[in-house]
Structures are given as C-alpha cells and as structure tokens.
Amino acid sequence: MSDLYPLGLRVRGRLVVVVGGGPVATRRVRGLLDAGARVRVVSPGLSDELAGLVAGGGVEHLARAYAAGDLDGAWLVHSATGVPAVDTAVARDAETSRTFCVVAADAAAASAWVPAVTALAGEQVVVAVHAGRDPRRAMRLRDGIAAALEAGELPLRRVRTRPDDSRGPREGPQRSEDASWGEGGGTRTGRVALVGGGPGDPGLVTGRGRRLLASADVVVVDRLGPRSLLGTLADDVEVIDVGKTAGNHPVPQERINELLVEHALAGRDVVRLKGGDPYVFGRGGEELAVCRAAGIEVEVVPGVTSAVSVPAAAGIPVTHRGVAAGFSVLTAHEAVAHVPAGTDHTLVLLMGVTRLARTAEALVASGRPASTPVAVVEDGYGPRQRATFGTLADIAERAAAAEVRPPAVTVVGDVVRLAPGWDAHTTDDESVSKP
Fold it and tell me: Burial code of 351-366, b = ≥16 C-beta within 10 A, e = fewer?
C-alpha cells in the first residue's frame, strides 16, 4: 500500500522557501511564482534566471548558506542544494516545524513530492502524475495523458456545481434554468466551435477538433461530418442532426444559426461539426457572424477539405509539377466560364452529381476541350468509395451508367490521368475503377 496521499495545494500569497540556487531550484521557483506563491530563496549563489527574478523584485533572496530558522512562517519548503548534509538538515527542520518538505535529490527523505504536471490551455485542467517516486516514469505517463487530452480521447466536459448545493455536482449539459451556476457564480455564456470534420474519416479530424468534441455539451452535426465520432460522446451530450441531402434541407440554415445561439446563451458549449472545412462551401462564415452578433465566443477549427482530400483518396493530386500548377473549387456548374479553360488548370466541382451533364456542356462551351479527362469520386474515404472516369464528352453518360450517387467530388483536368484507375479506363474502356 502506498504512503502517498495526493492533493493540490493553494499557495497563492503564502510563503514557500526554496533552498538552493541551481537549475532544479530555478524550475521550482518558476512553478511556484506561476501559482502565486511568495518565494524565499536561500542560497549563496543563483542561476542567471533566478538572479534575474530576484533583481526584478519577485523573489526574496537570502544570499548565504541555509541556517536554522530560515523556514519560519513557511507553508512549504523545497530543498534542491545537491549537498546531502544540507538537504537532510532542511528536511529535519521542516519535520520539526510541521512544514511539508520536498527534497529533490532524495525522495525517501522528503515528506512531499512534486508530480509530473501538464496543464491543458484554456480548459482549467491540470493533471499531476505520481509514479512511486519515480520521476522519469511519471513524466512518461504525464506525456501520454497530455497527448490523449490534446487528441480529445479523454472526457473534458465541465461538471458545473451550484454554489449553494450541498448535494454535490450535477453531470451533463445544464439547461437554461441552470445557466447562472456558471464560473464565478455569475451567468456563463457558452462557446461555439465551428469544427471542420474532414471528408468523413475520423482519423482526418484535427486534434483540436477532437478535443473540443470531448468537451462539448451539444453537437450540431452535418450529414457529411465524421459521424462515427458521435459514438465516442457521453450519453448525455445532446446531438442535433441537421444533415442535408440534395433537395432535402430538413433544418434550414436560419434555424441552424438559431440553435447555435440558443444553446450557447443557455450556458452550453456547442460544437458545430461540419464535413470538410467550415469555410469551403460550409456556410461557416454565416454561422460565425450570427454568433458574434449575439456576443458569443466562437472558435473556427479548420478541416481537411474534400475538394483536395477526396481526389487524393482516388490517387489524383489537384496540382502536379508539369501537369497542373493551379486549381479552382466550385459548386456544380456555377461560374465555370470564369476559371482558366486550359486542361492544365484543375477544376474541382462539389455537390454537382445531378447537374453533371449541364456542367460538362458549360465547360466545353467556355473553351475546354471535350477530350479533357474527368473523374467522379464517390464517398471519399467511405465504405463505397469508387472513381468513375471519362471525358467532358462522355462523363455524364458514364456516371449515369455507373449509377453514381452523392456525395461525390468531380475532378476535371489533366491530373486525372495520374490516377491508377485512368489506365484501366483508357485501355479496357471500363467506366468504373475501384481504388
């Protein structure tokens, strides 16, 4: 059984004595100052950084060897002299004065130990790891936990407590009547994060996006977002599905905007989980403007856009040296007459399956050769991913024969020839090639 009883100490405004002036003592002083402690250093010499802190008036310095009485009034003491006899004397005096003592070089002589610590920025989360007084093991464990927190693999949601509620904390997202329970006892307005979920593969969501999901009270999700991540949420996280399909918008954009504002004003942290990137035909700019107008803090987390990632999944780079030096992204056939007409400029079309024939005709009419290679990539990174190949002259017919269905991304230009399936298309006249 361990003799360790872990707890946190509030040292703000309280005297902590550090005996020693070298690198270890400097690290201890830095951490204590960050926690608001009054720090007294006892040491004949100081590191350059520690001398600077003393010169700046932030640290009291007794420029001599340790002596009895130096711990008077201290709540905590750190001994980091590297001299066993001195460390032993400090530990003995601390025991006599009932002051907890950390001994850097001899954990067995100490009555307190400093854990390996990681803090999660912006979340008021501090993780401290003790590992049987083995600091290297504790640091490895700390780094693993920090990585899991940053990746959103551990739950980060706040547990809000009513200040006068003796029954303890209540789990889960609080309703509007509980909004006044917020931090500091005042009304807390929630936050909104517009998270780009990438093309659908959960492995392509950024670490920041995963972390915000792990701390969300409400998730408003699109049809093309990485919906498998919803299974990692706690049961009491409210999930609102606003998915749209071609010609079917069950939740209009205006209502989506209202939902984000309503939940944030009720004190909940909201993640708007979108497919691709929030700003690439994702209407993220509109949602941002509405939330900001309501005084709500908004964070935008970029995502891997399907305009680039889905062609890549089929082996098509949107640019390639000697083949294409630029690309444009459009929806369906809109504005096709205003992009470069050469086959060396890649055109990526989103949400255009139902209008593919009209789009191909418009491209030819605006100057692109009818022989320009085209690929339609369905369900990029999904279970039914496949690519259908053709040219502007026949891609609509080939896609109809292959029964191409949304979601799909259409790529027009010479880069299509770089796809592994293109050779099969041209050699065997097969219209469908699975990656």
Answer: bbbebbeebbbbbbee
Does CATH number 3.40.50.720 belong to domain 15-114?
yes
* pTM of the full structure: 0.65
CATH top class, domain 190-304: alpha beta
- Out of 222, 269, 277, 379, which one is annotated catalytic? 222
Contact 233, 219 (CB under 8 A): yes
Count Cα atoms within 13 angstroms, Cβ side, for 152: 20
Residue-wise pLDDT tens digits, 231-265: 888 778 899 999 765 555 678 999 999 999 999 99
Q: Can you list the alpha helix ranges (DSSP code H) found in 219-329?
A: 253-265, 284-293, 306-313
Tens digit of each residue's pLDDT (9 = 90 or more) over 158-167 = 765 444 443 3
Say which of 244, 344, 394, 414 is annotated catalytic: 244
Fold of 307-433: 3.30.950
Q: Find residue 238's DSSP bridge partners.
A: 218
Q: Would residue 244 show up in a list of annotated catalytic residues for this protein?
A: yes
